[in-house]
Amino acid sequence: MELDEIQTPAIVADLAMMEHNMRKYQNYADQGGCALRPHIKTHKIPRLAQMQLDFGAKGITCAKLGEAEVMADSGIGDIFMAYPVIGPDKIRRFLDLSQTIRMICSVDSVEGASALAAAARERGITAEVRMEVDIGAHRTGVVMPRAVEMAKRIAGMPGLELSGIFGYKAMVLEGGPTLDPAAAGREEGELLGETAQRIREAGIPLRDVSAGSTPTAPYAAMAEGVNEIRPGTYIFQDAQRIVQGAASPEECCGVMKVTVVSTPEKDRAVIDAGTKALAGDSKLHAAPMFLSSYGQILGRPDLRIDRMNEEHGMIVCDGETGLHVGQPLYVIPNHICTCINLFDRIYIREHDGSLTETPVAARGRSV
Prior knowledge:
alpha/beta, TIM Barrel, globular
């Protein structure tokens, strides 16, 4: 298939640059003496997960059981699900996987941990878990003052093995948003390392301390006590990572091909990608990134996608767009992870220049 044959909107990913990104982050992990366990929620594609393992990753990270099941079916045998397993059906599915491959899941509550422990005891097995610590994202996770107490309770439950702790903070520094990935990553590593040390001093022998997001992972990997990082976006990179200083435009290898479908005014045009393609979870004109567009249009920094409906992306500029109906454009999405999940397939540009239509096998596997 040739590039001009691809109907739009569509995501095209360059294999050579993906490999560059994989090597780069594997090197960060190696230099820090850390395992790399990439988060596949970014791409949801078994082929790419296997490539990350081939480049040296220890295992993979998933967000949901559906993703883990797809990856396990593809032959991947070491999966950390960085999300609580809540409810009898999900506990059953997790334990089913645990009896065939290495599965680890997140716990952050007595209720969730005790239900999982009871189900594991009924099967006569031990479930491996990591306790999530809230180090600044304020999502799931045990608040730091209660971390030692909660770790003791979880570690004391027959049927569970508390093998480590993990956290996610991303671009937060001293409780607020930042554009300094180095400082945010160092703080992330220090908070997790110090928490792990307190837990160990309480008599609980943790093995793994897992940190990381794409912008902070290179710096968290260097922190004393951290022995694993979990970046995800790095395989494709995106416009937000450019603003955060985590990627160059050239490293953003997952781009969206779109088509101009209307040019109602000289300073305004419409493309065939709205919130059902480019997503809309990146706020514009908000601190700290102050994004001015729902994606960067390659070769046209003067153009901005400043508004979207479901199927329409409205492009504006301060002069004339110079665009014409039927013209293809290429956009670096602000947040590639949400975009990938909106497509059944992406197109991978192979080393010989050919394009491979590749199913997003774990797309929509959010249960």
